[in-house]
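Example for reference:
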Amino acid sequence: MLRAMKTEIQLRKDELQNRSLKSLYFGGGTPSILSVDEINSLIDEVLHHFSFEKDIEITLEANPDDLDKNFLKQLAGTPVNRLSIGTQSFFEEDLKLMNRAHTASEAEGSIKRAQDFGFENLSIDLIYGSPTSNLEIWKENLHKTIALEVPHISSYALTVEPKTALDNWISKGKVKSPKEEEQNREFYYLSDFLKDHGFEHYEVSNFAKPGFYSRHNSSYWKYQEYLGIGPSAHSYNGFDVRSWNVANNQQYIKKLNTKLLAKEEEILSKEDQFNEMIMIGLRTIWGVDLNSLKNKFDDRFLEYFQNEIRQKVEEGILVIENNHLKIPEKHWFMADGIASDLFMV
């Protein structure tokens, strides 16, 4: 796998216009697949073809049970300077429902161990709206997070995917289905609580202390180019081409062994580009830059857009500030639905 990924980096080195990288992200459960030596080797390969900005953010995504003392000790000697930990919850019942391998104590312990080894730039994932939880348990989860001094939090409502164990349990009546009104209440408690503790709510599902915004994810939300390496990885040229690698590891390796890319791509129509710009922008504190919209799309799009937003602006569901269209935070729980109402079809 390592050799295939290095080959892909070599073959795709010219796809990024910007040769100086401000972020590098190892995702997809990497610690359980790659050793620290392999992570270092991949970083060296990237450096062979690109330069790093002085304060580059290099993130490693991990599950709590991946982060034992030996792994963290080795990792502390690498350029990795940020960890994104899939905590999900500090309560056993939640973790069992989500079929997580780690326990509540491991969730807390992994964060403390990471800090002990010098990793202060941490992000954790938290899930709200679980049928095994309630507002009081959610409050305890958040108090625990604050006590652990984690500077970045990504938080999502529990969703039920078809044909999963959770879907089966709900259909058989073993578990209650998540309730939107409870998720709504927990979302706004989350937002208010974290702001009271110095966090900035900068994207619908993301909160950070000042200076700890995710640089990597912020590039997605600002429509910038990115290059994804490895099975299932996605890439975007910043304009009109999106590509993705095959998910199957063996197919990926086999193709790269012949010096061919194991990817597919699509050309985004103007409608696709418009819809994505609206969807992504309205999920952030930055909103949709109306000047960029005007420069990128012709009158047909702009007339449609002006007609669609008029009533929502009058109702206060949308606001225009400094020539940026935004959703007021009190409506952020419904952001995706509000954005989809503006889509060109």
DSSP finds 14 helices and 13 strands in the chain. The longest helix spans residues 180-196. The chain has a mean pLDDT of 90.
